[in-house]
Amino acid sequence: MKMRVPVLMLVISLLFLSCGTKISDYYPLREGLELVYQIDKSDKQNVENFKARELNKVSVVPQKIEIAKGTAFRFIAVSKEGIYNYAYQAPGATEPEILAQPEYILKNPLKPGKGWEAEASIMLLLERLPYTMSYLVESKKETVTVPAGTFENCLLIKGSGLAQKDKGALGVIKISVSEDSWYAPGVGLVKSVRKESGNHVLVGSSEKIIQLLSYKK
Question: pLDDT tens digits for the chain (217 residues)?
């Protein structure tokens, strides 16, 4: 009798063979993985992987995200290009919303000097402004210490972007965005630092730090 291999596991296996880098090591999708994050100094976020399922004929892993505002879900998919957000279900929503385009978390090839671009948006004076984020694989040998412990051989992804808008009499307002994210093999995201800085008195600067508090494999 022939055994049927789950679609998601088959795709992951192909990723291993095709690109020579175990991309899923840096963002594990195994059922039951639980991650608890500290956001800045007071907020927390719990992330838990559920059993793979099909959504609109695409194999996805649901990730439950518990935050102060409620419970949300991300639906993570895998392709030969990488690991990406396929759909999102906001707190209080009854059904997931399939994203207009894949939002890549990690993208092949995961080699220093390689990278990718992604469309993003940011609030600028009550207006949502689109811009492009550029991501670069900086290193695969980082050592990171967070409340959950010290992790070696981490993947460091550096992101940068510039949102700008001509506001007439106010001039051209610009917001620079930078984002550094560290992923530990076998665990996933362990730390992220996002900074925003503006060139105008009406646009302040901010920093958001996410650190892994604990995890359960």
Answer: 343 444 444 444 444 433 444 899 999 999 999 999 999 988 999 999 999 999 999 999 999 999 888 999 999 999 999 999 999 999 999 999 999 999 999 999 999 999 999 999 998 878 899 999 999 999 999 999 999 999 999 999 999 999 999 988 888 999 999 999 999 999 999 999 999 999 988 888 999 999 999 999 8
Q: What angle do CA 27, 30, 35 make, to 5 degrees?
A: 65
Look at residue 146 and tell me if it is in a domain.
yes
CATH of the domain at 35: 2.40.360
Domain around 184: 7-216
Q: Domain count for the chain, please give it.
A: 1
Alpha helices in 59-167 (DSSP H): none
pTM to 2 decimal places: 0.87
The token pair at 77 is 């998919």
Q: Is residue 2 part of a domain?
A: no
